[in-house]
Design goal:
Helix content is 26%, strand content 28%. The chain is an alpha/beta fold. The chain starts with a strand and ends with a helix.
């Protein structure tokens, strides 16, 4: 299988890394001769960190970023904190109980370098897609290149070509929604808020106000201010920008404006995400306001959802209908992101209808704002959510992202996300002493493990497939009963939760898996 990924923005880069992770041949095409230098997104949420880790690209990103454990909501007049999201509430759920700030134009070259390290020659700069045709066998794509027009054939075309997507336009797909009357203005300023002008702001702080709100983001090399700019308001001068910042943070000395950017804000979602062998992803599929860092990070959910599906099709383990789930699940996740972004915008304006992200409780709010709380509609029953609730970790359901908890195999600790990084995994929660019989049943692409607090004697074959769960910490955290099978997908989401009979033949796991592969 050969897959064309068009657009080397963050979503094209993450998607190409994902395809490489699963061993699918990908070529990444970018119309420009270099990656974008524009000042755009600045915060990467925890769920995106997990996706980057799975695809082998997290370490250099972390090295270049600034980590944050608190997102604050400050009163614009007094600078007092009204409320804050504490990422430490995620300690039970992830190995990364924090978010990071990194400018998009620093992130993209890191992802690109990593991609070329892992799969040299994947990227072709200076290749602009100008057209394509598709049939049952392939997609023929036409590129405008420095050497003239070129036509190449691929099995699939992933449209990561951004908000003005040519591919979306050629498909005749509408991107429905609204464009917000205000534009937003990003301003990067170098100033010392640590020592010379000490401020106690969280590294990501939202200053809400009816008339004039502001978001303050500490970047590795500067402080970034984001203001709304009314439809008729002219672009402020450099002094005007500094004055505006001072209206929020008080007097500070030695301010240097590094750069600024004004951009329109949309809230739009494509009416269709897949047409045969062509899939829309990232901004090509959805344009969200930058509120709560949902733009880039919602796109990363797309890049988590598509590559494993293509891998399973390539390996002959699933038919093409496995791609239907992408449109069904991800479009809903985006609807949730849109609702959260709208709630955030209302909140910043202190409008009366502002509901704080619809999540509740310290844990629920931290899960929601980190995007760890996404529940995908894996059963296609219309049950999905972006929000979690509660002060403490709550039981999981089908579609949830599995918490990245440790179990213990023969070689020591193994985390749940590592177990399923390139496999469906059936976790059989049960009692080793009952020797569950069905465990040996398997299918291509499916691994099975017994999870129990009871170890097996070394001479039993069962021990090979046993993961020790001391104190049943994992079973309790998931909130499942003994004799329950939890089926994990390669993107860490729970595909099914079903009871099993320890004396049965193990058909439950195979049936649940086959149903997803649509081969049953
Ligand atoms: C000014 C600005 C500020 C933003 N701030 C935030 C923020 O604070 N937080 C947040 O979460 N999000 C923010 N966003 C949104 C975020 O930047 C996007 O969600 C993100 O860039 C989407 O990534 P993408 O890869 O889907 O698309 P893009 O980043 O747009 O990348 C698309 C790529 O495709 C290439 N391309 C286009 N057409 C073709 C073609 N025909 N052939 C080949 N290549 C093509 C383009 O050159 C580009 O490199 C901001 C956006 C802007 C514009």
């Amino acid at each position: 299988m050969r897959v064309a990924v068009v657009g080397a923005g963050p979503i094209g880069l993450i998607t190409a890394l994902g395809l490489r992770h699963y061993g699918v041949e990908a070529v990444l095409f970018e119309e420009d001769d270099a990656l974008s230098q524009d000042t755009k997104a600045g915060t990467v949420l925890t769920r995106t960190l997990e996706v980057l880790r799975r695809y082998g690209a997290l370490d250099p990103v972390l090295r270049a970023s600034i980590r944050i454990d608190e997102v604050g909501d400050l009163d614009r007049e007094t600078n007092e904190k009204n409320f804050s999201v504490q990422s430490s509430a995620l300690g039970e759920d992830t190995r990364f109980p924090f978010l990071i700030n990194i400018p998009q134009h620093h992130l993209e070259p890191i992802l690109h370098e990593r991609l070329e390290e892992l799969a040299p020659g994947t990227t072709r700069l200076g290749h602009k897609l100008t057209g394509f045709t598709q049939d049952d066998e392939a997609v023929e794509i036409t590129f405008d290149t420095p050497g003239g027009e070129r036509v190449e054939s691929f099995d699939y075309l992933l449209a990561c070509d951004g908000g003005r997507s040519t591919i979306r336009r050629l498909l005749g797909v509408e991107i429905a929604g609204i464009t917000v009357p205000d534009r937003y203005m990003l301003v990067d300023m170098r100033m010392d808020l640590d020592v010379a002008n000490h401020r106690d702001y969280p590294y990501l702080a939202y200053f809400g106000d009816e008339d004039e709100w502001m978001i303050l983001i500490r970047q590795p090399h500067c402080w970034r201010f984001l203001f709304p700019l009314g439809p008729d308001q002219p672009e402020p001068s450099q002094d005007g920008l500094v004055d505006r910042a001072r209206r929020f943070i008080g007097d500070v000395d030695q301010v240097e404006v590094l750069g600024s950017n004004i951009y329109p804000v949309h809230q739009r979602v494509a009416t269709k995400w897949r047409d045969g062998r062509v899939l829309l992803m990232g901004d090509a599929a959805h344009l969200l306001t930058p509120m709560w860092a949902l733009g880039l990070n919602t796109g990363a959910l797309d890049a988590s959802n598509v590559p494993w599906r293509l891998a399973w099709i390539e390996r002959g383990w699933a038919d093409q209908s496995l791609l239907d789930g992408y449109e069904g699940e991800q479009a809903m996740a985006t609807k949730g992101s849109s609702e959260m972004a709208e709630a955030a915008r209302a909140h910043m304006h202190k409008r009366e209808n502002a509901a704080l992200g619809m999540a509740t409780g310290d844990w629920g709010i931290a899960m929601t704002r980190s995007l760890l709380g996404v529940r995908l509609d894996v059963d296609r029953t219309g049950v999905w959510s972006m929000n979690k609730h509660g002060t403490d970790p709550a039981p999981v359901a089908s579609g949830d992202r599995i918490p990245d908890l440790p179990l213990y195999g023969g070689g020591g600790e193994v985390r749940l996300h590592d177990l399923c990084a390139d496999a469906f995994v059936a976790l059989w929660f049960g009692d080793t002493r009952q020797r569950p019989r069905g465990l040996t049943q398997t299918a291509p692409g499916l691994d099975s493990f017994l999870v129990s607090r009871w170890d097996a004697p070394p001479e039993l074959d069962l021990r090979e497939r046993l993961l020790l769960d001391p104190g049943e910490r994992v079973r309790r955290r998931l909130g499942v009963e003994d004799n329950t099978l939890v089926l994990l997908r390669p993107d860490d989401h729970i595909a099914a939760i079903v009871p099993f009979d320890p004396r049965g033949d193990g058909g439950d796991a195979i049936r649940a898996y086959d149903r997803i592969m649509k081969m049953a």
